[in-house]
Design brief:
By secondary structure, the chain is α+β, with helices and mostly antiparallel strands. The protein contains two helices and three strands; from the N terminus they run H-E-E-E-H. A hairpin with a 5-residue loop joins strand 1 and strand 2. The mean pLDDT is 81. Bound molecules: zinc ion. Zinc ion binds next to loops.
Amino acid sequence: MGDSVMYDSPTEFLHEAANSGDLCVAQSVLPDDDGTYTVSCSCERWMANAPSMEEGLRPARVHTGSQR
Ligand SMILES: [Zn+2]
């Protein structure tokens, strides 16, 4: 029973799928109770506060690197 050696461990693939949750693929601007907006990212490691929805999009673009 040495034939199963040809199969690689699927660990690498699973690791890659798990990492996709850390990518900055989507940003959201959500209204807060105090009238400001909370900007968050799909990487869940970034968050900002903005006075309006449009103002919140700017730091989100800077965060993802699509605009300086
Ligand atoms: Zn991000």
